[in-house]
């Protein structure tokens, strides 16, 4: 605990300097038209906060009344993306992400994703875009033992994936920037809960078309903004994940855009991609909203002893409830997958 407190303290001056400039520097100008169809008929869908890290700011998700696309507006600027991603997947958050990435639930999802292409192709080379620490590639290799898995990510996690043998080749940087050097190399490109994080999803689809060989397959999974769970749970629904999720794309919109970019959609699935954590994540979001803040480098100072103790006691009291909800999520998963409660969807498209 002391080592973690020291790491937090060393980061505090950096965050303080950034916050001194004001939160407005973290946002681009507000859009007046839908980024998907260019319609000007927009409405506010929800306002929420950062429930995962607790960083300051209020985030607005707007919806297009014509095509149904949902997007963060105003969107994070490049500076804002760096601020809100820092210490989430790497740095202070690296150990937590590693535990989640190797959990039994994550492994079951990885196996489902890997099996999705078994009847369609036997890939020689597979590029996993947004691979993080490469845990999917490790699990997918069991289903596709003859496939060379490569990882691509903006963060340093992809280099750790290479170091730990999870990927055979690592590419660090923007997918759209790296697409031309990688042109025509891959039989499969996968994007698992990646597209919603990007500033320009259609450019990501174009990049996938570039790096795929003719007849290659693109495998996408994203949160389903049309899920009934999103309506029932409101701003507490986990997949809103503000401020990281910049775009939440209805299934029909994504399929239409894939066709425009030179793909043929060969399969869609709203059942198997469901992640059974809706009740648990909603409760965790509510809990973080009402509890005293834990120590974090974006706070001006470390919380006092009373605040720390009250938080620890509340978390201990809430733990059995969260475990119960986690079990309930698992119990309800078969029902959710057969209804519109499913919170994610999958698209498989072939490069023409």
From TrEMBL:
Keyword ATP-binding (UniProt): no
Domain of life: Bacteria
Keywords: Membrane, Methyltransferase, Transferase, Transmembrane, Transmembrane helix
Gene Ontology process terms (BP): methylation
Keyword Methyltransferase found: yes
GO molecular function: methyltransferase activity
Name of the protein described by the UniProt record: Class I SAM-dependent methyltransferase
Organism: Streptomyces axinellae
